[in-house]
Amino acid sequence: xxxxxxxxxxxxxxxxxxxxxxSLGLTRTGGAGPTDHKAFNFVSQTSMIPVFNEQxxxxxxxxxxxxxxxxxxxFENEKLIAKAAMPGRPKFYDLTTEDGIxxxxxxxxxxxDVLATTxxxxxxxxxxxxxxxxxxxxxxxxxxxxxxxxxxxQQLAEVARAAVELDGVTxxxxxxxxxxxxxxxxxxxxxxxxxxxxxxxxxIQAQCEPPDDDVWFxxxxxxxxxxxxxxxxxxxxxxxxxxxxxKASVPLSRYMSxxxxxxxxxxxxxxxxxxxxxxxxxxDEIVAMSKQLIELGVYPFVVPFVPVAGTPLEHxxxxxxxxxxxxxxxxxxxxxxxxxxSDSLKAGCAKCGACSSLKSYEQEVAHGPAAVCI
Length: 374
Fold this sequence. Notes:
- There is one protein chain.
- By secondary structure, the protein is α/β, with parallel strands linked by helices.
- The chain has helices at 5-14, 140-143, 153-167, 186-199, 215-222, 237-243, 252-266, 283-296, 321-338, 349-352, 358-367, and strands at residues 17-18, 37-41, 46-50, 61-65, 72-76, 79-84, 108-110, 114-118, 171-175, 204-207, 227-229, 271-277, 298-304.
- The mean pLDDT is 91.
- It is globular and about 55 Å long.
- The protein is built from 11 helices and 13 strands.
């Protein structure tokens, strides 16, 4: 009972209606993304699937736990099409720091073996809707008491060590809200990465807007960062100015020069960018920008947009699966030809691959069609 890449794309763009909410288990709801999703372990990869968004009530896909609560049964129009496992609650979630802060407020388990944290949970652009990214809910996690505003380097190192030792976490992703400083968060990521790597040997991806000076890329590398994410989200000036007016003040030309400089430091493929399909960029615009990035050695991690409650785009439609399928059928072969497949990367969202089915399209090109169900 093989779940094809196309079926996985459909599920990620339409979501799963959970039949019995009481058995949903470990999930992430509200606040900073990826959120309103649940992780499902398939044979070839772990995928994050929307399960809370209001639009999924119209999805043909549904899911429920089996009688023994050992697997998830996935249905399309009431027909069983796949089975999956569910990651359990990690052991490090039960621990607290010496000053009483739960570890899960400092960093969270993403996918099945990725530790994720937002070092600064506040952003200079967020509180003014004239400058904020309209899809972002970074400070909602803080308002809801699910996290703390600033995770210190010592706290991050302590949690990372526990996550590796207790739960077998294999990589760490550090992102940040953008501060007022010109380094745009790179400085705090340097301090955080250095502290983590002093306690535990774990690959790290750092994520921030392009800093003002390319010297920060080498500083991040020297601090122990293995990969860097600088996220475009939208690829055209038209959509950037409309959806993310503050972030659009950093021009695409700066992103491209920063990408080039960062690849020289971290290597091909270990620089990546998030592209949210469904914000208004056309299919051709996404493909053209992605191919340009691949030429530079940057991995374009194209992800279906999923609206988050409490944001201006909470009722914005999710993208069509057919568009994503056509995009991925072009990018999968392009990535394989360029030799920057997700499995070969050192750390980061593209290596994890859970928020997009792009990874399965790569694998089909490199190894032939593979079953992604159990």
